[in-house]
Design brief:
The chain has 194 residues and is an alpha+beta fold. It is 23% helix and 43% strand. The protein folds into two domains: 21-159, Jelly Rolls (Sandwich), CATH 2.60.120.260; 165-194. Strands 1, 2, 3, 4, 5, 6, 7 and 8 form an eight-stranded antiparallel β-sheet that branches. β5 (92-98) and β6 form a beta hairpin. Residues 164-187 form the Ice-binding protein C-terminal domain.
């Protein structure tokens, strides 16, 4: 009875570990086009207050939709299932997800009419069907008053686990450790004998 309880507990732990909850996926941000502000504020973990000015120092501001494109690289392939974005509340924004080859996987929109604050930025959240195999996301303005602002942008999901090495790779790795260990042992033995 005790063995089956231990085995059941182990299997439950393994299954729970495999189904980890979605977390904020770390990103590297870059941009093309004309904008003002520090890109580091877009993923610093600080969500600007609703109603704060769209071009304050804790945001990145730009004009004319399509003029600036912000790229959020996931550092590998990820499955993204939700996002949080602080944007100027009366404008439209597109969040497009691409695979490593540059093929469009999905697009998510935040539109101006959804805003509920009367001025400045607003934080929106979006949950959607998981987008698997995403390497990066591009964020652009797609309409509005041509005065745009981005604050915090977070993508939630999971990064793909690195591939498990082939048995031949494991054999080479273990063999290499053996050779290095043997050489170190032989060198130590010679020094002691002298």
């Amino acid at each position: 009875m005790r063995k089956s309880f231990v085995l059941g507990s182990f299997l439950a732990g393994v299954m729970a570990a495999g189904a980890a909850p979605a977390a904020v996926v770390p990103v590297t941000v870059s941009a093309t086009g004309t904008y003002s502000g520090n890109l580091a504020v877009l993923n610093d973990g600080v969500v600007p207050a609703n109603g704060s000015n769209y071009n304050a120092p804790d945001k990145v501001a730009f004009t004319a939709f399509g003029n600036a494109v912000f790229r959020f690289d996931f550092g590998g392939l990820a499955t993204i299932d939700s996002l949080l974005a602080t944007v100027d509340n009366n404008d439209d924004y597109q969040f497009r997800f691409f695979d490593g080859a540059g093929a469009l996987l999905a697009s998510v929109a935040i539109t101006g009419p959804e805003g509920s604050v009367g001025y400045g930025v607003e934080t929106f959240t979006r949950a959607f069907a998981p987008v698997s195999g995403a390497a990066y996301a591009l964020v652009t303005a797609s309409g509005g008053d041509s005065l745009y602002g981005l604050g915090e942008v977070q993508f939630n999901g999971t990064l793909a686990a690195p591939g498990v090495p082939e048995p031949a790779t494991w054999a080479m790795l273990i063999g290499g450790f053996g050779v290095v260990g043997g050489a170190a042992r032989r060198r130590t033995a010679r020094v002691v004998a002298a």
